[in-house]
């Protein structure tokens, strides 16, 4: 009976460590790992450390300016590399966030450059305005928010139009 009550107390105390986001399955994995390598208070300390790292990692992700898809991608990538080692995941999540932020910055710069190039193409060609407007609308519908592909589409059209014109 004492063991049962002690076990019930320990399980209850572990649940109090858990974050609102942390699933029961995640907490179970942390417990299993803790009791595989540690005993007693060491296991409890390890669980606290893992849960704290888990919470810190998600706070970092929530405070970043990344999209939900990018955050989910980072979480999946870290799970693939470190499984349920949230201590390690928390230590490298900053690098992953920085990497995705850098990618976002480069994409934005490329889109701005491509958008400028589209304006130059519009001004420097002999295609009738009605046809050009239709092609630009088609490129925007085909590649929304991707000005590089819109630029390529428009350049391809201009090139083909000029070949047909000859």
UniProtKB/TrEMBL annotation:
Keyword presence, Signal: yes
Highest rank taxon of the organism: Bacteria
Keywords attached to this entry: Coiled coil, Signal
Coiled-coil blocks: 97-124
Keyword Coiled coil on entry: yes
Signal peptide interval: 1-18
Protein name: Uncharacterized protein
